[in-house]
Amino acid sequence: RRLLDMPAIVARGHCDALQDCEVSFTGADGTDIPVAVNCSALRDRSQRLQGMVLVGRPVGELRRAYRDLSQAHETLKRTQQQLVQSEKLASLGQLVAGVAHELNNPISFIVGNIFSLRRYLARIGEYLDAVHRGLDAQALRLLRERLRIDHTLRDLGPLIDGTTEGAERTRDIVDALKRFSAVDRDPDQLFDLAEVVERSVHWVSTAAPRRFGVINGVRGPLLVRGSESQMQQVIINLLSNAADAMKDTAEPQVDIAASVENGTVSVSFRDNGSGIEPEALGRIFDPFFSTKPVGQGTGLGLSISYGIVERHGGRLEACNHPDGGAAFYVHLPLAGDGDRQR
Questions:
Q1: Rounded to an integer, what distance in angstroms lies between the CA atom of residue 342 and that of residue 329?
Q2: Helix (H, G, I), strand (E, B) or coil at 327
Q3: Partners of 41 in the beta sheet?
Q4: How far is CA 51 from the centre of its chain?
Q5: How far is CA 295 from CA 42, 229, 283, 291, in A?
Q6: Residue 120: which H helix or E strand, with range?
Q7: DSSP 221
Q8: pTM tops 0.85
């Protein structure tokens, strides 16, 4: 804040133009009133100063309006993040059954191996006790054959390897769930879109109440920069919608393909369902618009997906395929050489 003596400025002719200069005026109650001042010199034909044209506007209200607008913007950003997270958790809920099945397989394998290891441990313990008791060689040979010690020793390595593999598989599934459900800590990372598509296909096809075929023609690497978990959310949403759209189709199938042109990767998801109604096609990305029955959809999935793709510098498009069914296209910029080195 600075105080300016406007009459002195006018008298000296120091100012031909003054733009958005903040001046503090003293009000009748003695309080300072900040005013943004614009002024210009008023001269006659001989360029002699005749006066000043002065325009001022109080900035207190502008500051309050800016502060309110900034707070509203922050509130909207937080609300948007909460909506993205809520929709992500809703998608996660739909995947729970499939994920439980995915976890059940390696866990069952681990439990079975542990029972075998315990049985083998008892055999080896019995044989070692006999050795420590000092049984003769003939008795030990017969006991070794009866307890199948040689077979046990050969089987220990594969059992331990299988148990380790099952534990690692369980860990990978839990890590994938954590990455998908967690709030993004690093929304600007390099990831392979082809891997995200493959993982999403596996999850949705496993969790869907009705099995459907998938032809995945996406081959990597297709490196893009952004949020891997958010992009997985988009693809899971598109595949889940396709599964719902094909519930009455005799042989449901989703065809996925990718093409690269001019630094942009385009991934298409085409189902062989009934397609999108013409009146719904223009509103399909609107918030809270849904063609699903009440209670079976939030109407936010495609809207949030549209926003996520847009924030990644891309586009999400929908249409009815000429050969039937609906088709969705995700267009994203590929990471350049500079992005790969960051």
A1: 28
A2: strand
A3: 52
A4: 62
A5: 70, 26, 19, 11
A6: helix 60-133
A7: -
A8: no
Find, among 224, 199, 228, the residue nearest to 214 by Cα.
199
What's the CA gap between 226 and 287, in Å, rounded?
A: 23
Spell out the residues 6+ positions from residue 188 whose beta carbon is closer than 8 angstroms to its own: 225, 226, 227
Q: How far is CA 304 from CA 194, 327, 334, in A?
A: 21, 18, 21
CA distances from 57 to 24, 52, 115, 266 (A): 11, 16, 83, 51
pLDDT (tens digit per residue) in 12-38: 445 566 676 777 777 778 777 788 777
Query: What is the rounded CA–CA span in Å between residue 122 and residue 240?
Result: 50
Helix 149-181 with 60-133: angle, nearest 10 deg = 170
Smallest Cα–Cα separation from 204: which of 248, 169, 254? Answer: 254
At 185, list the tokens: 């800590």
* Contact (CB, 8 A) for 181 and 88: yes
Amino acid of residue 268? S
**Cis peptide preceding 34, ω within 30 of 0:** no
Distances (CA, A) of 21 to 33, 54, 62: 13, 11, 15
The per-residue pLDDT for range 115-173, each reduced to its tens digit, is 899 999 999 999 999 999 988 899 999 999 999 999 999 999 988 988 888 888 788 77
- Cα of first residue to Cα of last residue in the chain, in angstroms, is 42
Identity of residue 158? P
Q: Could you tell me which residues are beta bridge partners of residue 17?
A: 40
